């Protein structure tokens, strides 16, 4: 991929902040001072909001979800060409568009030997067989391009044994069965989705000698308990009895054979037989209509195979007029398990409409952003965020030096009640600002912000009652950007009214029933929620790409740090004191950060009231952009792959505090004084203190080294 050439011969910013500012100064195109001070044009922003068309999004979705488009399939490649065609259109295209291909390890069921689950007699006679495909209810669930339900990356095998119901397949579930005297060795565990990750169910089962795992979607978890045919799709949005959730059971993300390396032809590859992170025993998903029948002796036949396949990312680029070496990225994955109308095509439909509107203005010569915009369509996300991870591996240094933020819109509409946003604290303010200016669909003048606060809210010690911004895990393509690169990230969607459903996700998730008709009839008739997401995400994108000062509020991190600190003091303080571990250095580090963030806010406010020098603007913006990177420590969590962010790594401890500290305390809890586990607690505390002090130093005036 040659997007470095597309963006022009820009002098690269160095990792050190001071040197980066100097080099960045020379990277800014020379022109008038007014050009250097180009700021967000609210009239253009409003014009863009009005041009985003719900009917066009609807037609995009119809085209995107017409055929199943499993990663690396011919239909997936056809969508690559569709994106390239749209982004190269002479009237509404972007400055450039290119596809890049990686050779990655994927997992597929065998066509010659379909996976099978059967109840057998002691003599081996088949008494009952589970469905090998979902019921063809609308004419879209059959055909050779509909991949049968399977657990991607589960190993082949034909285990046979007594069936044991293991609830959600957590470690606690299996320990409870053992405590009840139930023999698990050689059994087949029937588990339901939820409670723990897909792959973790097989890992937990194998620890207890289980030979194979079945996973089903329980109607109590997805359908509010409704399960009859007249209560489910196609008569409602609920999952029909034959519906089966597909998914990747790989523990990590990225290409399994090239961790930390892009999956280029020349890259070193691990031996597939020694790769970690795959389920250790055969695993197969089934529908709830079959799950309720299974009893006694069960035979599971899994014939999955691993294959090296080509998978492509597509990038569309709009060059910045003033700071072309600063990138605002907006992405979504393209591949789906079957038709994927909700996941992910609802997001791609929004992406195409937003890029059409911006491309049209670009071609007319009426607008060009201050900073460069990079639109991305990621490949093979469903197998473990592969396309986005390979991209971050290949362009690690460039992105760390130059990326302002990453906006992810995967499933744009889960349901049509309210906005739902997740992100790191600095992006809260820009999402709030955008949502306050956009009317909520069909609510008589109520803004998206005002509607959002009705459904999800929290009490902020600084702002009072505000909408809740969720944190980012690893559920979509934002994961490598925040956890691996330390780039401020967010995920934006419309979602449910939680008072009306307990569904853990939209009911037809990863099944053959996630079709255009399902969205058009049940999820978002009229596509007004899709339009609302397009406007919200589009407004955030424009504010990040066009504002003179980056709208990233670093002081909002102070609330998170203070909350984490208070949780540690209240829940861990006494225990730590018993082991002569003091939280005082952490308290001081949090206070230093709060002071530095507040002082930076004041400097920005003063410059906004004056006519700042372009270099001053650049200096401050780089401090805002680089703050998130200061929380990275690649040695903090050696047991985790790609997780380097000391504030957002996975937390296994029960205390809602800094994850490294919480996890270390949880492991040390029942060990003796002076044990290695308590030394790890002290190490994690030191890692935190150094990260927070480094963050505070990054926010201080650059001249004050």
UniProtKB/TrEMBL annotation:
Protein name: Aminopeptidase NAALADL1
Transmembrane portions of the chain: 6-28
Domain Transferrin receptor-like dimerisation: 581-700
Residue span(s) of domain Peptidase M28: 313-521
A single GO BP: proteolysis
First-listed, main subcellular location of the protein, grouped into a coarse class: membrane
Role noted for this protein: Aminopeptidase with broad substrate specificity. Has lower activity with substrates that have Asp or Glu in the P2' position, or Pro in the P3' position. Lacks activity with substrates that have both Pro in the P3' position and Asp or Glu in the P2' position. Lacks carboxypeptidase activity. Lacks dipeptidyl-peptidase IV type activity.
Cofactors that this protein relies on: Zn(2+)
